[in-house]
Amino acid sequence: MKLRRLPLNVAALGVLVVSVFPVYWMVVTAFKPTRDIQADTPQFLPLHPTLDHFRTAVGADGFALFWRNSLLVSATAVVLALAVALLAAFAVARMRWRGRKAFILMVFVAQMAPWEALLIPMFIIARDTGMLDKLSMLTLIYFIVTLPFTIVTLRGFLAAIPPELEEAAQMDGAGRAVAFRRVVLPLLAPGLMSTSLFGFIIAWNEFAFANALIIKNQDDRTLPVWLSSFSNVFGTDWGATMAAASLFMVPVLLVFLVLQRRVTTGFIAGAVKG
Amino acid sequence: MASEAPQPPGNLLSAGISVPSGRRRPGAGEPSHPDAGDTGGRDPSAAARPSGVNPRRRRSGRGAARTIAGAWPYLLVLPTVVGTAYLLFYPLLRSVVISFQHFRTGELIRGGAAFVGLENYQDVLGSAEFWTVVRRTLVWTAVNVVLIMVISTLTALMIARLGRRMRLAVMSGLVLTWATPVLAATTVFQWLFQSRLGVVNWALVSLGFDSFDGFSWFANGQATFAIMVLLIVWQSVPFAALTLYAGLTTIPAELYESARIDGAGAWQIFRGVTFPMLRPLFGLITSLEVIWVFKCFAQIWAITRGGPDDATTTLPVYAFQVAQSLHKYDLGSAISTLTVLILLVVLVAHLRRMYKHEGEGL
């Protein structure tokens, strides 16, 4: 029995190593002193761990600023998307109205919108309206990119809450808004949480628009764009580059840890359902 | 999907119950259910609303009662509609319009672009470069998607057969890969394949491939293309594999057992049981991967900007190059429009199926 499973486990180990090694190598490099990084034979364990590279990365020109920019843009976009999506999801999940199907179709189309094809018109519109090089433009774009997915996911969570609960509260004399706040919102909280965190990741990782729309005002860059030009910042200092990349990944990893089991279902609801 | 099925009786029920709740103040800024808002006749403008707002309520025959409540859903979706119109449909339209104009740096600064009909499209379609890029994009998509689907399927089947602890380890590893931000991944891959200190070259030399000593991967077109494929596959497999595995767990074990009793081998079981059961999921994931790979931009731009020698210039990268580096916004827009059209042709079957399934369910 054990022997029969051997090839299977070897294959599993192979998949595990291939999927984990690049991330492992990033973190290990970040912790190794430069002398070890440049050794002729790579050292697979950080034998002389150091925080030097993290100090270099954090102390690099603008790092704190770009970290703040990324956080600000992503968080604002997500809060905005959540507020707008909650209204729309409620209308779709709980109400019957003419145009509902057309609206749903619009959300699906928006969800599959070829965002990459909008780089040029967004650049031109931003330029015409004086929004070029502005974080507010990026915020608006991340809002609209995450909005359709947020509506679809929230609508799914809302539909899972039986309307009878609200109706019972309303029978007891509560208004519809009160019933929603007291009964539905607490039940919806985990859904809101995971949806917003996924939206946050999308905004946090976004590169194409940040790269195309922040051109002259370098202070308004976000982390991904800054990271993409690491060779300008760190030259051939791979330790610092890997430290910066690791720090960039930390928030995303935290989100995944918080969500754990919801990761798969959430992504499937968000990605597969449209 | 099925969650909507019990809705009609539920609504009729609530229509009956909600009459007493109508004493609630109207228009108090609360989202109101059309069935709950018994505020009839208090808002004169409401009478102007089309009477067909809610067919079910019309049947209830409470006349003007439905009218103000009927406006609520429209108010609720208004921010979404306005936002999508201005930030998605307007830019899309603008892109199409620009593709029919002469729009270069001068027009960008001064405005007043002139329409030139199909000139830009003639330019683009007439250039050999464009068709080279189209061919490259199709090859890029095909190679990536085939690799992703084959590896994901094998990985999913493997996970299903693993012991509990190993399964948890592999799935955690896949989730970690999944969680890696695109830009962190591009940075790491550049480090892995670095010519002098990169661990890949070291490993290849150690295995006896001495020609890889100091090999500059990113100076060679084919090598760079291979690295990009590797990166995309590495990033995409976790989603596909975990989703397929989730699908595998829904197949009843009896089906496998009866197939085995009939003497079917592993391949026959996959062809006869697994694949037919998961066909919709396979279709869905394949379509999604086609979309993602086809319009992939960030990875390519961050690592190669389309180089070396255009070896990694796919359509989205090409459009951006033409617009941003050459300031030919008109040609760039034409290329973008054509890109979307090509993708639509590739995916038309998927779109139709999705609207049929999801549109009914919602």
Automatic annotation (TrEMBL), chain A:
UniProt cross-references to PANTHER family, sorted A to Z: INNER MEMBRANE ABC TRANSPORTER PERMEASE PROTEIN YCJP, MALTOSE TRANSPORT SYSTEM PERMEASE-RELATED
Protein family membership: Belongs to the binding-protein-dependent transport system permease family.
Location(s), subcellular: Cell membrane
Main location: membrane
Residue ranges crossing the lipid bilayer per the database entry: 7-27, 71-91, 103-126, 138-162, 183-204, 238-259
Domain ABC transmembrane type-1: from-to ranges: 67-259
Species per Swiss-Prot/TrEMBL record: Planotetraspora silvatica
Topology class, membrane: Multi-pass membrane protein
InterPro entries tied to this protein: BP-dep_ABC_trans_perm, MetI-like, MetI-like_sf
Alphabetically ordered keywords of this record: Cell membrane, Membrane, Transmembrane, Transmembrane helix, Transport
Keyword Membrane: yes
Protein name according to UniProt: Sugar ABC transporter permease
Pfam families: BPD_transp_1
Record GO biological process: transmembrane transport
Signal peptide: none
PROSITE patterns membership: ABC_TM1
A single Gene Ontology CC term: plasma membrane
From TrEMBL, chain B:
Keywords recorded for this protein, A-Z: Cell membrane, Membrane, Transmembrane, Transmembrane helix, Transport
Region described as Disordered: 1-61
Gene3D superfamilies referenced in this protein's UniProt entry, alphabetically: MetI-like
Domain ABC transmembrane type-1 per the UniProt entry, residue ranges: 134-352
PANTHER family: BLL4140 PROTEIN, DIACETYLCHITOBIOSE UPTAKE SYSTEM PERMEASE PROTEIN DASB
Compartments where located: Cell membrane
Pfam families reported for this sequence: BPD_transp_1 (PF00528)
Transmembrane regions listed in the UniProt entry: 67-89, 138-160, 172-193, 225-248, 331-351
Name of this protein: Sugar ABC transporter permease
Membrane topology value: Multi-pass membrane protein
InterPro entries documented for this protein: MetI-like, MetI-like_sf, UgpAE/MalFG_permease
Keyword Transmembrane: yes
One biological process term in Gene Ontology: transmembrane transport
Domain of life (superkingdom): Bacteria
GO CC terms, sorted: plasma membrane
Annotated family: Belongs to the binding-protein-dependent transport system permease family.
